[in-house]
Design a protein that fits this description.
210 residues, alpha/beta, two-stranded antiparallel sheet, binds S-adenosyl-L-homocysteine
């Protein structure tokens, strides 16, 4: 019988539930996504450990608690439109798609091979996520405005302007900002006329924006 990783998944959920800072909505989204389908076959036994895992091309899938924290910070409802920069294996996008529903998540990936694999995997698992190859620094203006934008790679020189410009006033931009070991998780609440509210959500470690 194929291993559906139910026991490990339940254990991960219990672990995340003990964190008081993750919402029930996000927990259910994480519970619905088969994380083992997103990691390389040789890593499946570790798929539900709460840590990052390599996904090839020197890139990593973020730890589940980090995906959960960011999913809460973008603060989305069903029907909201979201732009993700850094598709990677597509796991994070699938969690967000659980929150906003089909056809509402757009994701830009720099490495065409990763984009292609993520696109196939997401579609096989029934997630309607639009994956584009490109430089996420430029955003995806043709589908803007977004209710929320987030980066899964660190912006050393601050959040690129096109990403903020593509997010509607009142919308959220969540990103690791900074270089090396001094990255901070930042949330901007986009204001009118460049008047944004900026929050610091602590130290993080992400791969850099290429
Ligand atoms: N959300 C992903 C995490 C991927 S790691 C997941 O769940 O697996 C970060 C990703 O950002 C990598 O796949 C990397 O190739 C991509 N990336 C780095 N620089 C980028 C850029 N300028 N534009 C788009 N994607 C980029």
């Amino acid at each position: 019988m194929e291993n559906d990783h139910e026991v490990e998944r339940r254990r991960l959920l219990e672990r995340l539930r003990r964190r008081t800072d993750v919402s029930d909505r996000t927990l259910s989204a994480i519970e619905s996504v088969p994380r083992h389908e997103f990691v390389p076959e040789g890593r499946r036994s570790a798929a539900y450990d709460d840590r990052p895992l390599p996904i090839g091309h020197d890139q990593t899938i973020s730890a589940p608690h980090m995906v959960a924290i960011m999913a809460d910070l973008i603060d989305v409802d069903h029907g909201d439109r979201v732009l993700e920069i850094g598709t990677g294996c597509g796991y994070h996008a699938a969690v967000v798609a659980e929150l906003v529903g089909p056809g509402n998540v757009y994701s830009v990936e720099y490495v065409s091979d990763l984009a292609e694999q993520a696109r196939e995997r997401l579609s096989k698992l029934g997630y309607d996520v639009e994956v584009r190859v490109g430089d996420g620094r430029e955003g995806l203006p043709e589908e803007a405005p977004y209710d929320a934008t987030y980066l899964t790679c660190a912006a050393a020189n601050g959040i690129p302007d096109p990403l903020v410009d593509g997010t509607r006033p009142g919308g959220r931009v969540v990103a690791p900002v900074g270089g090396g070991r001094s990255q901070r998780l930042v949330r901007l609440i986009v204001g009118e006329d460049g008047d944004h509210e900026r929050e610091d959500h602590g130290g993080v470690r992400f791969v850099p924006l290429q």
